[in-house]
Amino acid sequence: MLAALVAASCSSNNIANEDMKIIAHRGGALLGNENTLSAFRKGIEAGADMIELDVHLTADGAVVVCHDESVDRTTDGEGRIGDMTLSDFKSVHALDRETGEPTDETLPTLEEALDLIKGHADILLEIKRSGSGQYGGLERKVLDLVASKGMCGNVIIQSFDDCVLENVHLLAPDVRVEKLIVCRLFPGVCIDNGINSFSFEKYNFCASINSMGAFTSKRFVRDCHRAGKEVKIWTVNSPGRVVPGVDGVITNRPDLFRK
To answer: Mind listing the pLDDT tens digit of every residue in the chain (259 residues)?
Structure first.
């Protein structure tokens, strides 16, 4: 069973389902080439309330946008981001999602993404881990960039990693943080980076519990709301598959939800 399961506001107010936020996953990964500036533009054009993106740290300390810890899958290059300089990272090109051919577009830095999205949508920003653990100082660099753009109220930080969330909350208590999980197996246990303890008290500083849509039940949504938490579900690409009562849906097709 376990194998099958694994296979910017600063408040935590509950909102009604009719106010459900539409969040463009990686900018809208079925609309464009994921986690690129062009994808973020498409997500904004589709009417997304928020753009979801992922960040890593290069060897020379630049905060960059990519889902995977390497550039192998989504670009014409190879290598772990943590081993690359910013110049190395900018030398590779995003692959066209339909043809698999290289495009003229490079992957963005977080600063470039913030500059593009600011004023058009809020941001749900996932801080990633490297294969060997946390990126040293990534949380501080992200928060400093967000603050420098005057976007602390427009950026939400989410992560599967409890240490990341705790660091962000310690460094910037007013920045909203949200806990990513795959699912709650049963009361007291969840799957996130592994199989770990789960309680609303443990995540009392998190405004939302963001769980995999396929494993999110109406009971879990109810329990979260009773605990004063919102619920966002990922990654759901059909409006017909939304669990009633959720507060946000993270989707590769924001256009379908807006229609």
So the answer is: 444 443 333 333 333 467 999 999 999 999 999 999 999 999 999 999 999 999 999 999 999 999 999 999 999 999 999 999 999 999 999 999 999 999 999 999 999 999 999 999 999 999 998 767 778 999 999 999 999 999 999 999 999 999 999 999 999 999 999 999 999 998 899 999 899 999 999 999 999 999 999 999 999 999 999 999 999 999 999 999 999 999 999 999 999 999 8
- Check 67, 93, 120, 225 and give the catalytic one: 67
Query: What is the torsion angle, in degrees rounded to the nearest 10, for the CA atoms of residue 87, residue 88, residue 91 and residue 96?
Result: -130
User: Which one of the listed residues 25, 93, 120, 225 is annotated catalytic?
Assistant: 25
| Closest by CA position to 182, among listed 211, 213, 222 | 211
- Cβ 18 vs Cβ 244: under 8 Å: no
- 97/28 Cα distance (integer angstroms): 12
Cα–Cα distance, 113 to 130 (Å, whole number): 21
Any residues with CB less than 8 A from the CB of 203 and at least 6 apart, and which?
Answer: 165, 179, 209, 229
25 is a catalytic site residue = yes
Task: For residue 175, give the amino acid letter.
Answer: V
H or E element that contains 145: helix 138-148
Q: What is the dihedral of CA 22, 23, 25, 30, to 10 degrees?
A: 30
Taking alpha carbons only, the member of 18, 56, 26 closest to residue 43 is 26
> How far apart are the C-alpha atoms of 70 and 74, rounded to whole Å?
9
